[in-house]
Write a structure and sequence with these properties.
Leucine-rich Repeat Variant; mainly alpha; 81 residues; single chain
Length: 81
């Protein structure tokens, strides 16, 4: 299990780093990947993209991904165990 967490963390870090790429398609792909992973640790980076990315489509995707991740983790905390 710990090995999976390390691998997931590396993937998240990789995609967060790619949010700075000059190619909008790379940034867009990484935003979508972070949303699929549901990486709560990416929320701050996605907010930064939403606030500052020059491409409107990337900003919208970051907003949607951030919202999706946020609500996923909110619902996860509220659900009975």
């Amino acid at each position: 299990m710990a090995r999976l967490q390390v691998t997931t963390q590396r993937i998240v870090e990789y995609h967060i780093a790619r949010l700075q790429n000059r190619d909008r398609n790379v940034r867009l792909e990484s935003v979508r990947e972070l949303a699929l992973i549901k990486a709560a640790e990416a929320l701050e980076a996605l907010k930064e993209v939403y606030d500052n990315d020059p491409d409107i489509e990337v900003r919208k995707a970051a907003q949607e991904a951030g919202r999706e991740i946020y609500f996923h983790h909110q619902n996860k905390e509220k659900s009975p165990k």
